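Hey, I was hoping to borrow your eyes for a little while. I've been puzzling over a protein and I'd love to understand its fold better. The fold is given in discrete form, as structure tokens running alongside the sequence. I'd be grateful if you could look everything over and explain what you see. No rush at all, and the record is pasted right below.
>
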Amino acid sequence: MAFPYPASLDEVERLASAVLPADVRDFVAGGALSEHVLRRNRTALDAVTVTPRILTGAPPVAARSRLLGTPAAMPVAVAPMAYQRLLHPDGEAAAAAAARDAGVPYVVSTMSSTPWEQIARTGADVWFQLYWTSDAQARHLVRQAERHGCQALVLTVDVPIMARRLRDVRNAFTLPNGVRAVLLDEGWEGEPSEAHQRTRGSAPARHTAGTFHPGLTADHVRRIRGWSDLPLVVKGVLDPDDARTAVRAGADAVVVSNHGGRQFGAAPAACTRLAAVAEAVGGRCSVLFDSGVRGGIDILRALALGADGVFVGRPVLWGLALGGREGVAHVLSLLQEELTEMLLLSGCRTCERARELTVEALAQ
């Protein structure tokens, strides 16, 4: 069947949702508890207005950027997301190849369902996202990432456990036997993990509860800094003081994120914390943003609020489900087209100029 080339990311999501099994669709789309934070992310972004500039002679517009010193076609990286072979048999390899073609970094998740070798063969600019398990395994994973040409490390700090996600609980969501966290399960001989055992509740949540370190501190950031010279990103920051702590511990960047509304059920919308975090770090590290980016206008909003770039998550998964590598490529192409248009309409030649735009958050 020919790929439909939807006109927007919302349409990509709608079409992908129609072809996925209901439990997989809910695993991707769902948020924590009553999903107030998930909805709050979108509402808050929609409430951010950006005042365009005129008489700037903006064309030609260039969306090119640099993320942690690496050239990128736009200030976007594909966010780390687990188990991408749930969405398409080619999983992470297809998404990474599309990111390579689009000229943006691809962040490999600790919970990748595709081995490093297959991802590295795509030639993508890869970063590695680390969930801390044990000290020994964390160091091993960092070494593996370096060995496979990883260009940055991303420590996720907002998942001491996987939060209660009611869609997964109701569905008794379980991974199919052909999908597993291969980077954690090296030497796996076919016995199903807890994430594959169907009982009450979410099987992946039970699995991660016994796997992830529940009490990360600044010392864990310092340990990674001691293990590797790669740029180090701390993901899951909402409080300005936490951003300062991360910088003092050795972070080269922080990601302002509430995990896409999938973790703490009373968290603020991530975009409402972005300006405060950017001000707190005062240029001592890069500031990235995720949680709710659904188009080029959201990238512009994030830049105007103080971000150097964004992570894009769920839209990539919807594209993967709809068309594999071609679907992800289409999602990234839409983002670049939309961002270029937004830069032009706002009177900005470059992404750097977008950070000078005036923003206001409307009453919600």
Remarks:
- Residues 314-345 form the longest helix (32 residues).
- The first strand starts at residue 48 and ends at 51.
